[in-house]
Amino acid sequence: MKSLHVSVWENKFWLLWEPFVSSIRSKKMEYGWIDSHAHIASEGLVESFDELVSNAKSEGIDKICIICGSLKEIEDALEKTKSDTDMFDLAIGIHPCDVKDAHEGDLEKMMAYLEHPQVVCVGEIGLDYYWDDSNREVQKAVFKRQIEIANEFGKPVAIHVRNGELNAMEDVLQILESHPATASGIVHCYSDTVENAKRLFELGFYIGVGGILTFKNGQNVRDVLNIAPIDRILTETDSPYLAPVPKRGKRNEPAFVRYTGEKIGELKDLTPQQVKSQIHQNYKTLFKR
């Protein structure tokens, strides 16, 4: 049996150190913000890569998924992030606006990078009818092929959808219903209807929430967020596009993702740390990182 003298000193020791130990435990459970979709390896941003990362760290961002749309972008991203692989994940895919210049050989070369442990996703892929819908059948074919490749590698997909005179979202939903993404996926920068968001959730998909949420004319995105399960959303910037209020009109960057995250907290009645914690869990569930 321990002596009373020893027990008293053990208690005194714990009383002295308990606040310090509790502080460490608390810090371990704290999360930073996540930017799940940023084009910072693209031309025009990659030249400022170090500055963008420094800005992001100063704003408490601890994870960025870099979207790569070419061999050069994925190679630049791997080189830039090799010293901090915990902070950076990568995605690679052929954007629907680029399919007219895509060849099967190029696609296969790009998708070979899916073997790399940092590459967590196929994207961004999808359909864009805003600028040109004359090649929509080619877009659909390349979209389906990239879903197949994602399935072969067990990777989720990051989907771009933009309507024009024709409804790209309806075509995306029909393709996902007939060609399921078996490792799930996310429709990034979601700005479509509440009804279509519900259809995506039924398919097991996530939605990416970006700067539009903070815009005066972004009520449709706020309506979607109101019905969205908190475990089916991810924060993103889509840098360099769509900077959130109060940075609207500026070049977007990962450092600004906190404004979107804080708006989510306001609408969902959550603290910033609760939002960060949930987004981390969602990210880990989707991307296995």
UniProtKB/TrEMBL annotation:
<dbReference type="InterPro" id="IPR015991">
    <property type="entry name" value="TatD/YcfH-like"/>
</dbReference>
<dbReference type="GO" id="GO:0046872">
    <property type="term" value="F:metal ion binding"/>
</dbReference>
<dbReference type="GO" id="GO:0004536">
    <property type="term" value="F:DNA nuclease activity"/>
</dbReference>
<feature type="binding site">
    <location>
        <position position="124"/>
    </location>
    <ligand>
        <name>a divalent metal cation 1</name>
    </ligand>
</feature>
<feature type="binding site">
    <location>
        <position position="160"/>
    </location>
    <ligand>
        <name>a divalent metal cation 2</name>
    </ligand>
</feature>
<dbReference type="Pfam" id="PF01026">
    <property type="entry name" value="TatD_DNase"/>
</dbReference>
<keyword id="KW-0479">Metal-binding</keyword>
<feature type="binding site">
    <location>
        <position position="188"/>
    </location>
    <ligand>
        <name>a divalent metal cation 2</name>
    </ligand>
</feature>
<dbReference type="InterPro" id="IPR032466">
    <property type="entry name" value="Metal_Hydrolase"/>
</dbReference>
<keyword id="KW-0378">Hydrolase</keyword>
<dbReference type="InterPro" id="IPR001130">
    <property type="entry name" value="TatD-like"/>
</dbReference>
<feature type="binding site">
    <location>
        <position position="37"/>
    </location>
    <ligand>
        <name>a divalent metal cation 1</name>
    </ligand>
</feature>
<dbReference type="GO" id="GO:0016788">
    <property type="term" value="F:hydrolase activity, acting on ester bonds"/>
</dbReference>
<protein>
    <submittedName>
        <fullName>Hydrolase, TatD family</fullName>
        <ecNumber>3.1.21.-</ecNumber>
    </submittedName>
</protein>
<feature type="binding site">
    <location>
        <position position="39"/>
    </location>
    <ligand>
        <name>a divalent metal cation 1</name>
    </ligand>
</feature>
<feature type="binding site">
    <location>
        <position position="238"/>
    </location>
    <ligand>
        <name>a divalent metal cation 1</name>
    </ligand>
</feature>
